[in-house]
Design brief:
With 257 residues, the chain is an all-alpha fold. The chain folds into three domains: 71 residues; 94 residues; 34 residues. It is built from eight helices and no strands. α1 runs antiparallel to α2, α5 runs antiparallel to α6 and α6 runs antiparallel to α7. The mean pLDDT is 77.
Length: 257
């Protein structure tokens, strides 16, 4: 919406400049034709002057008509500041994400922003634990293939649910400061239940990350890595070559008389 409104006024300015430019050009060519034609009558050159003057005059008239038509249309409404700010933020984030290491920087900034929003809340410690576990699982995700891929998807859904639960608990905690009496007690009780659910969820998420790490460890031990096999074969080959050189050197040594 902001782009449409700005585009509307930019088009108005361009049409106004174009109409003035063609008007000045038509006036100059028309004046030149009016002055030069009487000297030698109507010739080929004079016909050219008249045609140029008439064409530019027509273009000037069309530009003024287009300008008045566009000016008569109501401009688009002013943009919503929140939507404009969100659009600008997305543009900046897209530019930063295209830079080397930009995506990781954006993720880290979002993590710090979310953590600062929960400052002073009783869910902050659980949020930090969830952050650490999520980063650990992200490092393991590339090695969780086969049947473990479903667990990675479930972990992503669970992480979003836990973060939403933490935000809800923090909001209730902030709102409880304005309540008194029985209302305050009810809010404190509800907030404590939300925190308990969040803490249990974080513990379960950490257990999932530990299980994922065990899967990666056992999957790596199940089959010997090809590079280890190649290194062993190369070492055996070098030992055999060295032993062969030693035998050749011994055979070439002259026998004592």
């Amino acid at each position: 919406m902001a782009d449409e409104r700005a585009r509307h006024f930019r088009r108005l300015r361009r049409l106004h400049r174009s109409a003035r430019r063609w008007s000045v050009t038509a006036g100059g060519l028309g004046g030149a034709a009016a002055v030069l034609t009487p000297y030698s009558g109507l010739g080929l050159a004079d016909a050219g002057w008249m045609a140029a003057a008439g064409g530019t005059a027509a273009l000037a008239i069309w530009r003024w008509v287009d300008l008045r038509t566009l000016a008569a249309q109501p401009p688009p409404p002013p943009p919503d500041p929140a939507l404009a700010g969100e659009r600008t933020r997305r543009r900046i984030e897209g530019f930063v994400a295209s830079l080397p290491g930009g995506r990781e920087a954006i993720v880290e900034l979002r993590r710090h922003r979310d953590r600062s929003r929960l400052r002073g809340s009783s869910v902050l410690d659980g949020w930090r634990r969830l952050d650490l576990a999520a980063q650990t699982l992200a490092g393991l995700a590339g090695r969780l293939g086969g049947p473990a891929e479903g667990a990675v998807l479930e972990a992503a859904v669970a992480e979003r649910a836990l973060r939403e639960l933490a935000d809800r608990a923090a909001s209730v905690e902030r709102a409880s400061r304005f309540a008194t009496g029985e209302a305050r007690a009810a809010l404190d009780e509800g907030q404590a239940a939300l925190v308990a659910h969040f803490t249990d969820g974080v513990t379960a998420y950490e257990s999932l990350v530990a299980a994922a790490a065990a899967y990666v460890a056992e999957d790596g031990r199940a089959v010997e890595h090809p590079s280890v096999t190649r290194l062993t074969e190369a070492a055996d080959l070098l030992r055999a070559i060295a032993a062969g050189y030693a035998e050749l050197r011994t055979a070439a040594r002259p026998m004592p008389s």
